[in-house]
């Protein structure tokens, strides 16, 4: 399949699966692209996708970007999920340790240059891991942020050069939590403590009543995305 044929297939699949359940799209994704991976941040959306993928294609790879500065609850959720599903998440680490990063760029780079910090600890490692695959699955939803409002169920990811599936693009937060409760899915306990969106410890805070669900991410800067999604 050349690029033109791939883009035509993507457009047709996005239209055909727009109103289909996420499981139907995941089934299509793993059938069409056996060399596929799921990106997991251990947030609510991603634990739903892990559960769905384990039921449909338990041998498909699932990776996480280990920035070395996740909350302990996030690492505990990872460990519990590995035990529950009998799987091993693929750990993707930055090239620089936190000490090496501080030596080269100064202490607390997440404060002085959050974009550079995200590039080092997230975007560059993601670029490296995605080179090994033909497609990836993400947990982005259109109503999470204005930058995601136009996300399609199937896209060609020009940033990383592969096909991107967003099975939950049309879901609301309520849909996500209904699935979690109905299927007894393990989830990060920080969600029960006013953390609707969970990132690294230094750049994530609790969200007050009435605030946007992503207000706790990079709260002291104008940054709204880590750069993983165009």
TrEMBL record:
Q: Which cofactor does it need?
A: [4Fe-4S] cluster
Biological or metabolic pathway of the protein: Sulfur metabolism; hydrogen sulfide biosynthesis; sulfite from sulfate
Q: Which residues form the active site?
A: 226
State the InterPro entries in the record: APS_reductase (IPR011798), PAPS/APS_Rdtase (IPR004511), PAPS_reduct_dom (IPR002500), Rossmann-like_a/b/a_fold (IPR014729)
Q: Where does [4Fe-4S] cluster bind?
A: 117-118, 200, 203
Q: Where in the cell is it found?
A: Cytoplasm
Q: Which EC main class describes this enzyme?
A: oxidoreductase
UniProt cofactor note: Binds 1 [4Fe-4S] cluster per subunit.
List residues of the Phosphoadenosine phosphosulphate reductase domain: 36-205
Q: State a single Gene Ontology molecular function.
A: phosphoadenylyl-sulfate reductase (thioredoxin) activity
Question: Catalyses which reaction?
Answer: [thioredoxin]-disulfide + sulfite + AMP + 2 H(+) = adenosine 5'-phosphosulfate + [thioredoxin]-dithiol
* Keywords per UniProt: Cytoplasm, Iron, Iron-sulfur, Metal-binding, Oxidoreductase
Which NCBIfam families does the record cross-reference, listed alphabetically? APS_reductase, cysH, PRK02090.1
Q: What function is annotated for this protein?
A: Catalyzes the formation of sulfite from adenosine 5'-phosphosulfate (APS) using thioredoxin as an electron donor.
Q: Which PANTHER family match?
A: PHOSPHOADENOSINE PHOSPHOSULFATE REDUCTASE (PTHR46509)
Q: How is this protein named in the record?
A: Adenosine 5'-phosphosulfate reductase
Species whose genome carries this gene:
Paenibacillus agricola
């Amino acid at each position: 399949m050349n690029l033109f044929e791939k883009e035509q297939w993507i457009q047709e699949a996005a239209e055909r699966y727009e109103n289909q359940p996420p499981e139907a799209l995941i089934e299509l994704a793993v059938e069409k692209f056996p060399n596929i991976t799921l990106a997991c941040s251990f947030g609510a959306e991603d634990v739903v996708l892990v559960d769905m993928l384990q039921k449909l294609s338990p041998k498909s790879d699932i990776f996480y970007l280990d920035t070395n500065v996740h909350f302990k609850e996030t690492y505990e959720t990872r460990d519990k999920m590995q035990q529950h599903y009998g799987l091993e998440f693929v750990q993707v680490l930055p090239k620089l340790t936190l000490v090496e990063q501080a030596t080269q760029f100064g202490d607390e780079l997440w404060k002085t240059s959050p974009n550079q910090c995200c590039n080092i600890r997230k975007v560059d490692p993601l670029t490296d891991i995605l080179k090994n695959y033909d497609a990836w699955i993400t947990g982005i939803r259109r109503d999470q942020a204005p930058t995601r409002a136009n996300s399609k169920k199937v896209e060609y990811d020009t940033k990383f050069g592969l096909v991107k599936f967003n099975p939950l693009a049309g879901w609301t937060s309520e849909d996500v939590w209904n699935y979690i409760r109905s299927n007894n899915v393990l989830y990060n306990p920080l969600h029960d403590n006013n953390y609707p969106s969970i990132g690294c410890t230094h750049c994530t805070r609790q969200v007050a009543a009435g605030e946007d669900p992503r207000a706790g991410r990079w709260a002291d800067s104008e940054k709204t995305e880590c750069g993983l999604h165009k």
